[in-house]
Amino acid sequence: MIINRFGSLLSTFRNMGRGTVYYYAVANGRNPGIYNSWDECKKQVHHFPKPVFKKFKTETEAHNFIQQNAGTSTNCNTNRPFDVRTSKRPRVESDKSIDNNDNKRLCSEKVIDCSEDKKTSGSYDIDSDGYVNVYTDGACSSNGKKKAKAGIGVWFGDNHPLNVSRAVVGRATNNVAEIQAVTAAVEQAKKAGIKNLRINTDSQFLISCINNWMPTWKANGWVTSKKTPVINKVELLEMEKALKSLNVTWVNNA
Fold first, then answer.
1. CB 137 within 8 A of CB 152
2. Is 77 part of a structural domain of the chain?
3. pTM of the model
4. What is the pLDDT of residues 120-129, one digit of tens each?
5. The domain that contains 52 carries what CATH number?
């Protein structure tokens, strides 16, 4: 099944090369303090009411953040100094895994509260900026031929209730499958009340559509540079409509 392909995608995403050290400041959580990995930070804020936390490049900034948000915590004396809560060396993350939107959020003063992003029984893979990770994929056998068969996969986590694995609706092509996979992921996220979604895809076609081609196609009346109609117009418009009510970032896992 298509859904089985996501295990390797997730493994690749989590084992990217090493680069920058980050400190995770938890001002309001189970055990407020500074943590050196997102996994440790997540344990303190996941399913905690109105968590306040943020990622920093220096320990000093993390300390200052906690002191500035001392009034938000109900679990500790925030006047005391905070130690980095780990016996391991600080987590090192790849710069390649951080897109431009991530960099903008790193520099912002916004306090992250992702408590509303957890309304199903399944747990989520939430990044350090409060975005729920979802992995999408589409595949097609005999692509471009009359007997082609295509399917989509949406993966929120192992055995997650929001996962989707089904056949493509309509034309069976690889690109249609990739587009419909994203649309399905967004629809599932909405049902769960998720507001911030990080879409991981290996489709360069899809990334190019979002970042480059669609604005041009719209301006040109949905015709290509060769003056031919855009083949996937219907599917792309359905995806665009679904995306409007969410905060979305994209990760190209190609």
1. yes
2. no
3. 0.56
4. 335 888 888 8
5. 3.40.970.10
